Amino acid sequence: YPKLSRMALCYLTIPLTSVGVERLFSKGHILITHLRNGLSAASIWAILCLNDWAQKGYVKDKDVLAVT
Asked: Which domain holds residue 13?
């Protein structure tokens, strides 16, 4: 299960550079607006991971849309 192992690494690891962190803050700023400020930290993390996995082709867009 190579895709699953890559997804686990993405989810469980801490970024080693500030570039990844800056990118997350940028995406988080778009995601966490005054309209969506009721989302939990776990929900925000899940959305960011799903977005990253969809961009890398680990999951299909239609599957992401089905759970959001």
From this structure: 2-67
- Report the domain count for the chain: 1
Q: Can you tell me the distance from the alpha carbon of 19 to that of 57, in angstroms, rounded to the nearest whole number?
A: 21
What is the predicted pLDDT for the residue at 23? 61
Question: CB-side exposure of 33: number of CA atoms within 13 Å?
Answer: 3
Tokens of 55: 């961009």
Taken in order 55, 37, 65, 47, the sign of the CA dihedral is positive
Percent of the chain predicted with pLDDT > 90? 0
Rounded average pLDDT over 27-37: 59
